[in-house]
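Entry 14: structure prediction run for glucuronosyltransferase. Input pasted below.
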Amino acid sequence: MTCRKTILFFLISILFQNSKSVNFLVYCPLFAHSHHTFLAKIADTLSEEGHNVTFLAPIIVQKYENFKYLKHTTDIIYIQPDEELKKLGEIMGSAGFSKYWTEEPSVFSMIPSIKLFQKMFHKIYENLRADLSILDSLKDRKFDAMIYEVLAFNAIAIQQYLGIKTLYPTFSVTHGMVLSKSIGEPASPATLSSALSPYGEKMNFQERLMNTVCAFIYQVFMKPPKMISYSHPYYEIDLKEAESKASFVFLNSNPYLDFPRPMLTKTVLIGGISVNTSQIREERLSDEYHNILNIRVKTVLISFGSIMLSTDMPDRYKSIIVKVIEEFPNVTFIWKYESDELDFANNLKNLHFFKWIPQTALLADSRLSAFITHAGLGSINELSYMGKPAILVPIFADQLRNAKMLVRHNGSISLEKQDLGNFEKLRVSLAKILKDNSFQENAEILARQLNNQPISPRELLIKHATFGAEFGELPSLDPYSRQMSFFSLNMIDIFLFLGVFLAILVYFLFTFLRLLLNLLLKKKAVEKSQENRKTK
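Run finished. Output C-alpha cells:
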C-alpha cells in the first residue's frame, strides 16, 4: 500500500511540475565561444528545472555549426547562413585579435568589432524578414518569455513578431552602460568604468574623462541600424524602449566578486552560473594528467584562452616564459599551446604542452598551485570558485577590468602583457604567488564566499525567470528617473536655482549691510560734527 502511495505521489508531482512549466525561447547567434557558453548555461539551467526551452541559433561563424555547449536542452533550431552572412562570419573568425598581443587596447579599440557585430545581426534580421517561415513555425509554441544577449539587438524584432510578453536581456560580461541607461539604472562614468575599458573603480581625471568619452560614443554614435517590425502595422522598432520594458536583466556579474555599484531591482546578477563546483569536482582527469600532477609538489597551469592563442604571442614573450620556468625546476608547468612547433622550449623536463586542457578539472585539483591566465571572465569565475591564486595577464576588452576586479581580493597578481617580456618581473611575481601563502588563503576565502552566498546564481535565474514569465512587464520596477531630462536627473536645475537664489540673497545682504554701514558712518559723522560745535 505504501508503495502505491509513493508511486501515486510521484505521478502527481510530475503532473504538477509539467503544469507549472514555462515556455522559454533562448535566442543565441553563434559567433563567439564565451557568449555561447553563457546563453547555453542559462538554457540548460531552465531545462534542468523542467521548463520547455527552445534554443534558436542562427549560425554566423561556421566552426560553431556543431553546437556542443548544450547538455540538457534538446530543442535546438539552427538557422543556416546565406553567402553574405558566411563572409561576415569569416571576417569575425579571422578578426585578427592576435594583434592585441602587441597593440595597446583603448576605449576605442573595440569599435570595429562592435560595428561588425551590428552588421552581422542586422543581416540576420534582413534574412528573417525575407523568409518568415522559421518564425511562423514557432508561433504555435506560444512562448512565455524570450532570453537574448543585448548585442544581438535583432532579437527584439523576433520577440514582437512572436508576441512574447516577457523579455530578458542578458550580457555575458559584467555589465553594459548602454543597457543600464535603457532601464534607468545609475551608470555615471565617473564611478562605473565601462566593461570594455581598462579601468577599475578608482579612476583619476584622465581615466574618468576617457570613460566619459567612451560612454558618449557608445550611446550616441554606436547605435544599431534601424529595424522595421516584421508584421503590420510596420513601425520602427525602438530598442531602448523595448529594453526598458524588460521584466529583469541577467548579467554575468557576481556581487561578491565585482566592484559594488548602485543597481535596480530588475538587474539580476548571475555571474558564476556556469561554474557548478559539485559537478566540476566530480570530473575525472586522465592518467596522463594524474602522472604529471604527481611529479612535483607544485604545479602551475598556463592558458590564455580560446581567442588569444599562445602561439600568436611574440617570440620574445615565449622565450622569457621558458627562461622563467627554468628558474623553477621543482615546479611542474602545464601550458595550453596550440601548435607542435616547440623548439623554443628547450625540451624542459618540467614543462608539458597540450593543445587543449581540461581547465575546470585541473583548477579543481588540489595539486594545482596557481594559474597564469588572460583574465577572461569565464576563467576568472572558474578560478575564483575553485580558490586558486593566479597571475593575471589581461590582453584586451573586458580582461583588463576583470583583472582589476579580482586583484582587490588579494588572491592574485596582475601584470601587463609587456611584463611577459620582463624576465625579472615575471620571475618575482611567480615566486611570490608560489611562496606567499596569503595568496592561497585569500583565494580560498573568496571561494568560500562564492560557494556559500545567500542565494546562488542558479536560484536567482530560475526564480526571476519564472516570476517574470508569469507576470510579464513589471511597471512597478520601472523608475521614473528614466523619463527625466539630463538637467533634472542630475539636479542641474536645482543647483542653478539654488545658485541664483544664493546670489540674490548675497546681493541683498551685501546691499543691506552697505546701507547699514552708510547709515552708521553718517550717524557717526553727525555726532562728530556736533561734538566739534560744542568744543568751539
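Notes: Residues 5-19 have pLDDT under 50 and may be disordered. Will compare against the previous run tomorrow.
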